[in-house]
Amino acid sequence: MSIVKLRLLGLSSRTWTRSNSSSHKRVLWSTFRIRQFSTEQEVFEDFGEYSVILPEEPFVFGVSHIKPRTVPAHVKKPPYALPGGEQAFGIPKQNSGKIPLGGVEESLLAQAGSLAKKVRQFAGTQVKVLDRSVQRPTKSILRFSAFVLHKVESLPATISLQLIPLSINNIAVHGIPDDRKLENGDIINIDVTIYLNGYHGDTSETFLVGDVDEPGKELVQVTNEALSRAIGICGPGRPFKDIGRTIHEYLLDKDYSVSSTFTGHGIGKVFHDNPAILHHLNDEPGVMEPGHCFTIEPVIIQGRNPKVWIFPDGWTASTENCARSAQAEHMVLITNDGIKVLTR
Question: Which of 262, 322, 324, 326 is nearest to 295 (CA)?
Fold first, then answer.
């Protein structure tokens, strides 16, 4: 992916430098600042120094040009990956999103969550081996992780592309792995979704690549803390809206915003199930009950603009003003007397 036409985003292009790589430009946010205006004064925000990711030109629309990875015939596929099964990808309207506790269903769901955690951790090790003299293309992280999944006869739940989304810097979610090499100072979110023995696992984490500047480190720390606090209020009888309220209150005195575009979801045999989990302040009805399993996955963005825009590929979502974002995600199972975090 490359950096092009910064003026389309409403940014001033008077200050930027080109990196040694011809595939993208490196924006120095310490001198290249987003301008925001108020009636009283001009406000400048400094989000740090990092590379901004924008789509390559000429634009290619859709993902038909991306060759899906092959899946061994003996690996069990989800219903939505079978011929004519695309409709099965949505949320069943009448499904409660709950599973029976204490039996085989809970065990299989826990196994899927545990595998997702292990793949997330393994993918993270591929980021951490990077140093300033060895750069790793994001495709290689995908290849290693897919190998692990196939060895245990499972597969990414994002079956249409057979990939694990990798989102760098200003990419909020659903970044598609490509030939771009990770750079010193990047932050990268690895979003692992797996399908194992009829159940789904879903988890993500944002990793630091080399020497990340202080604003980048703080963003990742704030994101992890927001997720931790949201998990901490979960339990039987608690309103789902408390998740959004907790994250909102945590960010009140900080220069960050939470995306309202992307939500958590129930998970189990169905990939995206009830209930819907909103991370922003909301007044949605519903309470947590034993057997509910859902993801909490806030996308935290630098500054007070939580809007995103979608690349021509129809998947990759960037922050509107190219501020950095980070995401962290866990699966939470509500039990009779508390919770289990299946991916921690």
Answer: 262
Domain boundaries defined on the chain: 6-71+95-341
pTM, two decimal places: 0.81
CATH number of 6-71+95-341: 3.90.230.10
Please compute the mean of the pLDDT values over residues 17-46 and round it to a whole number: 44
The predicted model gives 91-119 an average pLDDT of 87
Q: Which two tokens stand for residue 164?
A: 């694990």
315 or 89, which is more confident: 315
Q: Give me the pLDDT at residue 132, please.
A: 42
Torsion angles phi and psi, residue 222, rounded to 5? -65, -40
Residue tagged 């080109």 (tokens): 18
Q: What are phi and psi of 237, to 5 degrees?
A: 90, -10
CA atoms within 13 A on the CB side of 104: 2
